[in-house]
Amino acid sequence: MKVTNMTFKEGSQFKIRIKPKDDCASFAINIGHDSDNVALHLNPRFDSGGDVNTIVFNSLSGGSWGDEAKEGNFPFVRGEECKFYINFNMEQFYITLPDGSMLNFPNRLGDVKYKFFDVSGDARIVGIKIK
């Protein structure tokens, strides 16, 4: 699913409910300006790209990927719905994972408003809400 004309700005909270497929290898949530300029790439990997039960974070600027960051806390279960909460400011994204733990990732694009949202991979969106 791709949304290209939303308003997600500093101070808002983005709530995403996703259900990974029973055989999910990985899925990705992307937030940014467009598919070549992604401020937050959040990629839980059950078993993909040589990573097992790892969350990979990155950003994409002008079509070029930055340096990956990896997180070993992996509160996901194939086939079970999960919720994320995402907030951000000019410096950081603040991600609340399904188990309630929080992670930060730098806002490498440094903007305070994004309009692009995309979910790809072996999962389906159950619901999204921005407030």
UniProtKB/TrEMBL annotation:
Keyword entries, A-Z: Lectin
InterPro entries recorded: ConA-like_dom_sf, Galectin-like, Galectin_CRD
Keyword Transmembrane: no
Classification via Pfam families: Gal-bind_lectin
Record-linked SUPFAM superfamilies: Concanavalin A-like lectins/glucanases (SSF49899)
Gene Ontology CC entries for this record: extracellular space
Signal peptide positions on this chain: none
GO MF assignments: carbohydrate binding; galactoside binding; laminin binding
Annotated ranges, domain Galectin: 1-131
Top-level taxon of origin: Eukaryota
Database matches in PANTHER family: GALECTIN, GALECTIN-1
Official protein name in the record: Galectin
Lineage, opening ranks: Eukaryota, Metazoa, Chordata, Craniata, Vertebrata
